[in-house]
Amino acid sequence: MTAANTPTAVRPALTASGLQKTYYSTEPPTQVLQGIDLELQEGEFLAIMGASGSGKSTLLYSMSGMDRPTAGSVRLGDCDLTELNDREMSRVRLTEMGFIFQQAHFLPNLNVRDNILLPALKAQPKQRAEVEARVDSLLTRFGIDHVANHGITEVSGGQLQRASICRALATEPKVLFADEPTGALNSRMTAEAMDALSDIHRDGTTIMLVTHDPTSAARADRVVYLRDGRLVDELELGAWSAEATTEREDTLLAWLRANGF
């Protein structure tokens, strides 16, 4: 095979090597992450599961630069995040990462559209017209353009979570981090939020999801299981399709039971 038709290798979007996190505020100190090695490939949808207290959110925070690991390294593409100072790391989070949490954390004095627009304008202050057009396109895409000018207390939980997804995508991030994004939603709203995540994943967005919910995790290409701060198992599910939902959920539930979930 010649160089001209050699397939392009899949490139890691995010890589953790020997990742450790210890909290010294307790006596004795609490080691939450114990030497984790994990790669997230470009365009991959990865779900992280495990029992409460296993270190799932700590892993997400450490790999996204929201928290500093005690040891080990994290690379976003070719950039070693652990070598950045706080100001540099804040800039990377703003311009190259998107975040969705269980709670939306919107500013109460701004309407839905302005809450989405504000961080995007901060990331790209000289491109206001382009940013506004992108935000309006996202509002339409995720079906909340009709509530764009509403206050955040005037919309449903599902609409707020879709607004959170719009906010996370407005800066065109390299990686989208989602920490229990459906934890406060009912089953219908959970399905709406996961449909939105599946939609953007099909477009090529790289996603890291922390969840307790097997139904949500079944949307992922791959699921890893965390126990006592260590990665102990992983399950390849491949690309999601609505037709295969029941089979995927059954496979995942059997795997989770085998891991003591």
Task: Outline the structure in words.
The chain has helices spanning 56-63, 86-96, 112-123, 128-141, 157-169, 187-202, 214-217, 245-258; strands spanning 12-23, 30-41, 45-49, 71-76, 79-80, 97-101, 175-179, 206-210, 222-227, 230-236. It has a single domain, classed as Rossmann fold (3-Layer(aba) Sandwich). Strand 7, helix 6 and strand 8 form a beta-alpha-beta unit. A 6-stranded mixed sheet has the order 6-7-8-3-9-10, with helices on both faces. With 261 residues, it is an alpha/beta fold. The mean pLDDT is 92.
CATH homologous superfamily grouping: P-loop containing nucleotide triphosphate hydrolases
Q: What shape does the CA trace take? A: globular
Q: Which band does the percent of strand residues land in? A: 15-25%
Count the strands?
Answer: 10
How many alpha or pi helices?
8
Structurally, how many domains make up the residues?
1
The largest sheet is: 6 strands, mixed
The percent range for helix content is 25-40%
Structural class designation: alpha/beta
Order of helices and strands: EEEHEEHEHHHEHEHEEH
Cα(first) to Cα(last) distance is 46 Å
Q: What is the CATH C level class, in words?
A: Alpha Beta
The pLDDT mean sits at 92
CATH topology: Rossmann fold
What would you say about this model in short?
The chain is an alpha/beta fold and 261 residues long.
